[in-house]
């Protein structure tokens, strides 16, 4: 193995600590804590674990956490009514509806009901439109976390060839937009891409968000490439990424592990977005140098 291991867990802990300090300053200035509401429909075990760890991180960063758990058979009108109630609640700065929702619910309509000012997941049409147009707004947490790791690892990304594998609304598409804004030349690959290995071989930066364990092979990589593994797959009880770690680590220059890479960054960026939303909503200036 030759690759440097990118310690997302450590980076995320430092970011959460800075967000916590800024959240304390926000409370002093605004007379209230910044607040994050998370909505979980159903009892998918992985989602339940994620929502719980996020709630703990929120409280540890001196923000208020509001958890709403609804039964799996909740109807559309009830869920949208909850989102509207959270939109109207002044103590709530951020709203996250855990995805995927049970199949009988219209995910797009639920997300579109979120007030864009509180869209800390960056998933509403308004947030996605702002990102596409280069207008300042709230950016999806996982791609934001990946970008922060890349900039910390590499510095200026200008002119680099990047490939994003996966084009989901939550990860791949916004990741490609962020890398484009950072002046990379971006390839966005998906299940219909022909000769993926050929495209990967050109890339200085590889972001894998496919949802298939060990899908990206080390032999595809350009030697020295920086590899960001977004995948969270459970195989025989263990968490593994979308990149075949051992073969990739022998070719890459740097690589994120799973766990301990992108996952912790997602939570840290969720807190950061909540703090950003709180400042904007309260008309308090955020010291950007801090976070
Ligand atoms: N670490 C974290 O914080 C987070 C991790 N994740 C994890 O990241 C992974 C991806 O999540 P998400 O984006 O939501 O997943 P989706 O299932 O929504 O999207 C998967 C994408 O991968 C593409 N894909 C599937 N098979 C192939 C293939 N053979 N070759 C090329 N592309 C392919 C699909 O293409 P097509 O569009 O053509 O179907 C699709 O665009 C999952 O493992 C998920 O658990 C997700 C969110 C946060
Ligand atoms: N609206 C919405 N927004 C999301 O951001 C969102 C979502 N829905 N649905 C599910 C996915 C998945 N996701 C993860 C976040 C953190 C870890 C994480 O912290 N992982 C740890 C390991 C955790 C463990 O051990 O299980 C790690 O990688 O080190 C993983 C996955 C956010 N998602
Ligand atoms: Mg380091």
UniProtKB/TrEMBL annotation:
Domain Tetrahydrofolate dehydrogenase/cyclohydrolase NAD(P)-binding: 140-281
Coiled coil (residue ranges): none
Enzyme Commission number(s) of this protein: 1.5.1.5, 3.5.4.9
UniProt keyword Signal, yes or no: no
KW Phosphoprotein (keyword) present: no
Protein's GO biological process: L-histidine biosynthetic process; methionine biosynthetic process; purine nucleotide biosynthetic process; tetrahydrofolate interconversion
Pathway: One-carbon metabolism; tetrahydrofolate interconversion
Binding site residues for NADP(+): 166-168, 232
One example GO MF annotation: methenyltetrahydrofolate cyclohydrolase activity
Reactions the enzyme catalyzes: (6R)-5,10-methenyltetrahydrofolate + H2O = (6R)-10-formyltetrahydrofolate + H(+); (6R)-5,10-methylene-5,6,7,8-tetrahydrofolate + NADP(+) = (6R)-5,10-methenyltetrahydrofolate + NADPH
Annotated CDD domains: NAD_bind_m-THF_DH_Cyclohyd
GO cellular component assignments: cytosol
Domain Tetrahydrofolate dehydrogenase/cyclohydrolase catalytic: 6-121
Record keywords: Amino-acid biosynthesis, Histidine biosynthesis, Hydrolase, Methionine biosynthesis, Multifunctional enzyme, NADP, One-carbon metabolism, Oxidoreductase, Purine biosynthesis
Summary of subunit composition and partner proteins: Homodimer.
Family (UniProt): Belongs to the tetrahydrofolate dehydrogenase/cyclohydrolase family.
Role: Catalyzes the oxidation of 5,10-methylenetetrahydrofolate to 5,10-methenyltetrahydrofolate and then the hydrolysis of 5,10-methenyltetrahydrofolate to 10-formyltetrahydrofolate.
Name of the molecule in the record: Bifunctional protein FolD
Organism: Sphingomonas suaedae
């Amino acid at each position: 193995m030759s690759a440097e291991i990118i310690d997302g867990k450590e980076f995320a802990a430092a970011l959460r600590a800075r967000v916590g300090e800024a959240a304390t300053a926000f409370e002093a200035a605004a007379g209230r804590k910044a607040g994050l509401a998370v909505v979980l429909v159903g009892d998918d075990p992985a989602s339940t674990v994620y929502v719980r760890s996020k709630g703990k991180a929120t409280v540890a960063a001196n923000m208020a956490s509001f958890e709403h758990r609804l039964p799996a058979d909740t109807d559309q009108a009830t869920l949208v009514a909850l989102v509207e109630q959270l939109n109207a609640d002044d103590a709530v700065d951020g709203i996250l509806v855990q995805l995927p929702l049970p199949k009988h619910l219209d995910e797009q309509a639920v997300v579109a009901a979120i007030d864009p000012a509180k869209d800390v997941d960056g998933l509403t049409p308004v947030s996605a439109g702002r990102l596409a147009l280069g207008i300042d707004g709230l950016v999806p947490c996982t791609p934001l976390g990946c970008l922060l790791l890349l900039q910390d690892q590499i510095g200026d990304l200008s002119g680099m060839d990047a490939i994003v594998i996966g084009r989901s609304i939550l990860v791949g598409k916004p990741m490609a937009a962020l890398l484009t804004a950072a002046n990379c030349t971006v390839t966005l690959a998906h299940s219909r891409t022909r000769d993926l290995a050929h495209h990967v071989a050109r890339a200085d930066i590889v972001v894998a968000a496919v949802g298939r364990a060990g899908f990206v092979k080390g032999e595809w990589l350009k030697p020295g490439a920086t590899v960001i593994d977004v995948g969270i797959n459970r195989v025989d009880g263990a968490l593994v990424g979308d990149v075949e770690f051992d073969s990739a680590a022998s070719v890459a220059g740097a690589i994120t592990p799973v766990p301990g890479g992108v996952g912790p960054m997602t939570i840290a960026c969720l807190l950061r977005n909540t703090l950003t939303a709180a400042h904007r909503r309260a008309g308090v200036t955020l010291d950007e140098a801090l976070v």
